[in-house]
Design a protein that fits this description.
Layout lengths: L1 H13 L2 H5 L3 H23 L4 H10 L9 H8 L4 H6 L2 H11 L4
Amino acid sequence: MKHLLTTTVAFMLMTAATTAQAETAQERKARCEAQGEIVTKAVALRLKRTNETKAKEAIRASTEEALQGAIPLLVGYIYTLPRKDLKANDVPAVFIEQCAAFEPE
């Protein structure tokens, strides 16, 4: 699970590499924490068996405009994971840790 999450997070962050390169470590940490909130909400909705479309809508309604673009990717990823993995692992914490540690080349 951890390796899969590492690979996926690295891929997601590479898609935003242009933005990430202009970030300071502090800005990256703040962005990762904000995206971690999206992941936290997605995990909670997935565990409640909310369908993916409704989860995206609910999260979009409570997320600031600057983060709207991350919602489909992050929620979509959470919905690919088995529910048992979401129960057994602290996916939001792992996401935040790996996101903040990512160093663009």
